Amino acid sequence: MSATRRLLPGLLALAVLSSTLLVVPACKSTTEEEVKAAMEIEILDTTWVEKEYKTWPKPMLKLVPAVVFRIKNLTAEPMKYVNFNGIFKEKLAVENVGDQFLAAIRNDPIAPGGWSEPITLKSNFGYEGTTLDSFKNTIEFKPLWVKIYAQWKGSRHTLLGEWPVSMKIDFKEPGIPVIQGGKPVEPKKK
User: Fold this and answer.
1) Sheet hosting strand 98-105, strand order edge to edge
2) Angle subtended at Cα 64 by Cα 61 and Cα 69, rounded to the nearest 5 degrees
3) 51 has pLDDT over 70
4) What pLDDT, on a 0 to 100 scale, did the predictor assign at position 6?
5) Distance between CA atoms of residues 185 and 182, nearest Å
6) In which domain, by residue range, is 105 found?
7) How many H-runs (helices) and E-runs (strands) does the chain carry?
8) Per residue in 91-127, is it b (16+ CB within 10 Å) or e — as a string?
9) Angle at CA 187, nearest 5°, toward 185 and 190?
10) For residue 67, which of 32, 115, 104, 36 has the smallest C-alpha distance?
11) Residue 111: closest CA among 151, 71, 79
12) What CATH number did the domain enclosing 74 receive?
């Protein structure tokens, strides 16, 4: 059997498959304008939160920026399967400090005209210090901005807005640990 005879059935099948794909209508994804018209965003809080804290053997405190917001459904249908992406960076910087992608609205849709539960986006990176005071007394701890993008019904990531992250730190250092046998021991609660 020649090489041409072996290729002929494969080429014929490919031609039939390509012609049927031309007839199948393409799925229409939601445009950026439709995404913006479908939802309203309300920022509830921006703050810095603990990512990691330890006092032993070497003190370390990592803080990351966070934003808490909620979404209002402006459509006539329940809204679900909405993804959000928060990009945290300095105002005019090209590179971001950190980000977070979150598949936030899933099985519990937002009713038409209703608001979502609060949604929190926390950066995966932030700043590192040794204590809470080390953040308050350094020029490296800089103000950041967060850009929030939404993705819904096959849309591209659509920018919903940009907001400053407050310099408020939502973290309290615990008291000085008790050391026994070279290791910190949690104080007994009364």
Assistant:
1) 98-105, 82-89, 144-152, 158-165
2) 145
3) yes
4) 61
5) 9
6) 28-49+64-129+144-165
7) 3, 11
8) eeeeebbbbbeeebbeeebbeeeeebeebbbbbeebb
9) 155
10) 104
11) 79
12) 2.60.40.10
